[in-house]
Amino acid sequence: MWNTWLTRTLNIDLPIIGAPMGGRAGGELAGQVTAAGGLGMIGAARYATPEWIDEQLRVIRAAAGGDAPLAFGLQTWSLADSPELLDSVLAAQPKLVSLSFGDPAPFVQRVKDAGAVVISQINSVDDLREVEAAGVDAVVAQGGEAGGHTGRIATLPLLQEVLRATDLPVLAAGGIGSGAGLAAVLAAGAQGALVGTALLASPETIGPEYAIPALLKARSVDTVYTDVFDKARHQPWPTRWFGRALTNDFTERWHDGDGVDASSSTEEAVSAAYDGAMPELGVVYAGQAAGLVDEVRPAREVVASIAADAEARLRAVAEVLG
Q1: CA–CA distance from 164 to each of 53, 101, 168 (Å)?
Q2: Mean pLDDT across the stretch 218-228?
Q3: Residue range 93-109: average pLDDT?
Q4: I want to staple 140 with a disulfide (CB 3.0 to 4.6 A). Which of 81, 171, 181, 274 is the partner?
């Protein structure tokens, strides 16, 4: 039996949370992660609507049962402009809410008053200090290996730094795509992990039809940390967060390859060249764990196999000490 702050606090079987991937993690994926014993999160991105939230609730209840615990991930930087989104999330009586990418202080107490556990994904120790002051219950050290929007510090250095700097429970995210990865962060001191890219070839994901085939072909080197897709789609993300996505013809043309986008590329030019319906141009956000994903597997099976392998590896590691 798993025994971490995460499993005890949320009363779940496995120390695994399905990452709240905007545009990919809806009710079906979240429901299957929860049904496997973890906790699936619905990615309520800035373009989500109350109607979309209601639909995902119907889906997750069908997938995991009417009394299944609910969890949502919100983009804090955009919440002030979308108060109805937080209203809809809290009306669902979630067990956990992630307030990430920006100062969560204006929203933390309201989420706690609704009875939910509050976590924040952080990308630096400065972020840690900000969310600690806001009163969150736990933090997620999200490394730059993660898919989608993330920071620039790798998971293992960031996790070690955060563990040393706080007494809050710490989870890990970024590059955790197998039981070996989960075992590694738990052994380091994390209380659980967010898993995202490993679930992206599951049939329960939402998103464009080309996303799964593109991921299955990708290797771990076939990602890029870029803001060209934000420019292309006029997404007003704060400039400190770029997104990690699979490389394709669009990134080959518009990204300069050095981790900083070409200053000569105007947003208008990038947007005019973009077509999200075309596989060679559209965005597929995915992390460096892409090289571990080589077949279509149900999310419930992915989660169960990660947990079982992590347990076996941790038991084996215990024998190293004789």
Answers
A1: 37, 22, 10
A2: 97
A3: 97
A4: 171
φ/ψ bin of 189: left (φ > 0), alpha (ψ from -120 to 50), beta (otherwise): left
**Residue 59 tokens, joined:** 């889906």
Per-residue model confidence (pLDDT) at position 305:
98
Nearest-5° Cα angle at 196, 126 to 4: 70
Q: Which residues, including other chains, have CB under 8 Å from residue 257's CB and lie 6 or more apart?
A: 224
Q: Where are the beta strands (DSSP E) in 71-154?
A: 71-75, 96-100, 117-122, 138-142, 148-150
Kindly report the three-state secondary structure assignment for every residue of 87-104.
HHHHHCCCCEEEEECCCC
Q: How far apart are the first and last CA of the chain?
A: 22
- pLDDT, tens digit, for every residue of 234-291? 999 999 999 999 999 999 999 975 444 444 568 999 999 999 999 999 999 999 999 9
Which tokens belong to 241?
Answer: 């967060």
Helix (H, G, I), strand (E, B) or coil at 257: coil
Q: Is 215 helix (H, G, I), strand (E, B) or coil?
A: helix
Closest CA to 286 of 10, 4, 21: 21
Domain 7-206+288-321: state its class: alpha beta
- Vertex 230 angle, CA 224 and 233, to 5°: 130
Question: What is the per-residue pLDDT for 273?
Answer: 95
Which residues, in sequence order, are bridge partners of residue 148? 244
What residue segments make up the domains of the chain, in order of their start?
7-206+288-321
Nearest to 201 by CA among 287, 271, 72: 287
Of 84, 56, 83, 80, which Cα lies nearest the Cα of 70?
Answer: 56
